[in-house]
């Protein structure tokens, strides 16, 4: 593959060119006249990573789809697309949820945070990200964004979890490389309980 | 059959009043689909194993939220999430059985979104049915799980009637043990159904797991004071501790006075299409001390009338052992 055209750049290019948005119009059809009034408006103002983004969202579209293919936020991964792996974990009002199993319209009034939204304005990594690097938590890295988001949600609710509490809180994220203990070390380090 | 990334085109409604939701649901009838947390719903729709014309997202209905104390116990809004149930002080203090059961559902992320109403109303997890095969439960005339080659390790050992699927809900048996009441609203008003009658088996209705019909909305679950602060026992055995559905689960509530069991409700999940009440066990332990010897005295009473399939004989000793643990009071 041309090194200048990585997969990520290709995806971003497609999104920028509007091709993805255009294909989504395949879903669109005006609702029949006999339908009850009040179906949702497609055009949403979505609060993602502290920014309000205007986006055209199909009624049945998942948040993972909107983030990745409409907003270019490809840090959120799709593993199973059916609530069984955790790769797509994001925060909605500080609670960790599966973006593959959430309709974008369901979070239109909530603050969504993805892995791209964690670092500070000056580029400093979130303590969880820094601790995961320090502890060499990721192996292949595919599950990492989801692991980070679950750890962030945990530490917001419980800043000093026991290792067992952390294990429970991280249990909705599969790691195919089996790096669980390394992620747990990362969580404990991020909570300041490992030096 | 493959899983699809995107769901097919549907409309979506987000009513904020129960009356509006009932109106929309009644209009779409069989083609409308209520959504609490959507955690059971989206798999069906992505797989095209079931379809709908309209999703009716109930989450905006404020009156279906919250947990409150009532004159006789507590009332849990239908939209209360499983995570909220595991953290609620009232439930933890008085009805810890339900908090424990809710805490063993699926995974943290699913519990953060999944509602109590969705948990009790979810459809069965038989993979033949979930993959869209036209079996009895789907309206056809064959059960794929109950054939010589059928993979039925997870299926029923009691009360099968053509369909051999089991109840997947972890909270269902706990709610029946606590003698909960299900509050259901539709266009003609409100009715209150005991949890024990809310769940229906294939002998009664093979297409539905509950008494809910299009246009019905479960708005709340009431738990009477009767079993508050009783002695409880919950245990769920599954292949993995996260995500997997119960192979067998037990939810027990016991009134114990001076070490003697005065009254009890012993429920088992995942052995038949509805939560199974063990009345024979309840009778056998009444008036006996809650200890190891009472537990052992039960032998295989719980499973003695089971009808296992090819691959699920293991559920019989598993169930007997869980009953013993519940009765003696420790894992
Ligand atoms: C990977 C995975 C693992 C799972 N593991 C478990 C498990 O171990 N134990 C377990 O018990 N469950 C499990 N589940 C099933 C289920 O997703 C959860 O139990 C969850 O609680 C369902 O709630 P929900 O609100 O998301 O349901 P929804 O999908 O919103 O609804 C489920 C059903 O109930 C109906 N419904 C919802 N709300 C109402 C209402 N107020 N009135 C009338 N009908 C209503 C819907 O129309 C739908 O038919 C699992 C699901 C997944 C995807
Ligand atoms: S067990 Fe029930 S749901 Fe499964 S194939 Fe048989 S009839 Fe269908
Ligand atoms: S992609 Fe969402 S849980 Fe696997
Ligand atoms: S690091 Fe490879 S899947 Fe977790």
Describe the structure.
The complex is a heterodimer of chains A (195) and B (331). Chain A has 7 helices and 5 strands; from the N terminus they run ααββαβββαααα. Chain A is α+β, with helices and mostly antiparallel strands and 195 residues long. Chain A has 2 domains: 3-113, Ubiquitin-like (UB roll) (Roll), CATH 3.10.20.30; 127-190, DNA polymerase, domain 1 (Orthogonal Bundle), CATH 1.10.150.120. Chain A has a 5-stranded mixed sheet, sandwiched between helices. In chain A, β3 (89-92) and β4 form a beta hairpin. In chain A, α4 (127-134) crosses α7 (180-190). The longest helix of chain A has 14 residues, at 144-157. Chain A starts with 6 loop residues before the first helix and ends in a 5-residue tail after the last helix. Chain B is of the alpha+beta class and 331 residues long. Chain B has a domain at 11-60: Uridine Diphospho-n-acetylenolpyruvylglucosamine Reductase, domain 2. Chain B has 13 helices and 12 strands. In chain B, a hairpin with a 2-residue loop joins β6 (181-186) and β7 (189-194). The interface between A and B is large, with 36 and 38 residues. Bound molecules: flavin-adenine dinucleotide (FAD), iron/sulfur cluster and FE2/S2 (inorganic) cluster (2 copies).
Residue-averaged pLDDT of chain B, rounded? 97
Poorly predicted sequence stretches spanning 5 or more consecutive residues of chain A? 18-33
Order of helices and strands of chain A: HHEEHEEEHHHH
CATH superfamily of the domain at 11-60 in chain B: Uridine Diphospho-n-acetylenolpyruvylglucosamine Reductase, domain 2
What name is given to the CATH topology of the largest domain in chain A? Ubiquitin-like (UB roll)
Shape descriptor of chain A reads elongated
Number of domains of chain A: 2
């Amino acid at each position: 593959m041309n090194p200048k055209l990585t997969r990520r750049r290709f995806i971003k290019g497609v999104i920028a060119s509007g091709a993805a948005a255009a294909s989504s119009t395949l879903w669109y059809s005006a609702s029949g006249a006999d339908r009850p009034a009040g179906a949702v408006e497609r055009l949403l103002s979505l609060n993602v990573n502290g920014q309000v983004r205007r986006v055209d969202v199909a009624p049945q579209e998942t948040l993972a789809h909107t983030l990745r293919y409409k907003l270019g936020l490809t840090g959120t991964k799709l593993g199973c697309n059916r609530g069984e792996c955790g790769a797509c974990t994001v925060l909605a009002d500080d609670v960790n949820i599966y973006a593959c199993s959430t309709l974008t319209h369901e979070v239109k009034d909530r603050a969504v945070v993805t892995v791209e939204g964690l670092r500070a304005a000056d580029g400093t990594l979130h303590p969880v990200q820094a601790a995961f690097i320090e502890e060499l938590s990721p192996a292949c890295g595919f599950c990492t964004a989801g692991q980070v988001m679950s750890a962030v949600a945990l530490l917001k609710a419980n800043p000093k979890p026991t290792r067992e509490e952390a294990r429970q809180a991280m249990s909705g994220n599969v790691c195919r490389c089996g790096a669980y203990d390394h992620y747990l070390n990362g969580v404990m380090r991020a909570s300041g309980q490992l030096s | 059959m493959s899983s699809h990334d995107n769901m097919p085109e549907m409309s979506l409604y987000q009513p904020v009043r129960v009356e509006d939701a009932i109106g929309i649901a009644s209009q779409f009838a069989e083609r409308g689909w209520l959504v609490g947390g959507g955690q059971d719903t989206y798999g069906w729709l992505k797989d095209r194993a079931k379809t709908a014309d309209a999703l009716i997202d109930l989450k905006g209905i404020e009156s279906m939220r919250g947990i409150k104390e009532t004159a006789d116990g507590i009332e849990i809004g239908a939209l209360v999430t499983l995570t909220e149930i595991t953290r609620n002080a009232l439930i933890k203090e008085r009805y810890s059985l339900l908090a424990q059961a809710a805490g063993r559902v699926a995974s943290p992320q699913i519990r953060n979104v999944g509602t109590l109403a969705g948990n009790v109303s979810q459809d069965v997890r038989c993979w033949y049915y979930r993959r869209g095969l036209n079996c009895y439960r789907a309206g056809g005339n064959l059960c794929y799980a109950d054939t010589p080659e059928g993979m039925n390790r997870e299926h029923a050992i009691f009360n099968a009637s053509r369909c051999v699927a089991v109840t997947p809900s972890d909270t269902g048996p706990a709610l029946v043990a606590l003698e909960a009441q299900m509050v259901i609203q539709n266009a003609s008003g409100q009715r209150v159904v005991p949890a024990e009658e809310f769940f229906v088996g294939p002998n009664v209705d093979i297409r539905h797991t509950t008494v809910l019909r299009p246009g019905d909305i479960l708005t709340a679950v009431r738990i009477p004071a009767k079993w508050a602060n009783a002695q409880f026992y919950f245990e769920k055995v599954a292949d993995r501790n996260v995500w997997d559905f119960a192979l067998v689960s037990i939810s027990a509530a016991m009134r114990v006075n001076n070490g003697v069991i005065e009254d009890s409700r012993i429920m088992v999940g995942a052995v038949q299409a509805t939560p199974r009440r063990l009345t024979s066990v309840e009778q056998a332990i009444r008036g006996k001390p809650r200890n190891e010897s009472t537990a052992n005295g039960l032998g295989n009473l719980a499973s003695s009338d089971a009808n296992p399939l090819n691959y699920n004989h293991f559920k019989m000793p598993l169930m007997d052992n869980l009953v013993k643990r519940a009765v003696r009071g420790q894992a």
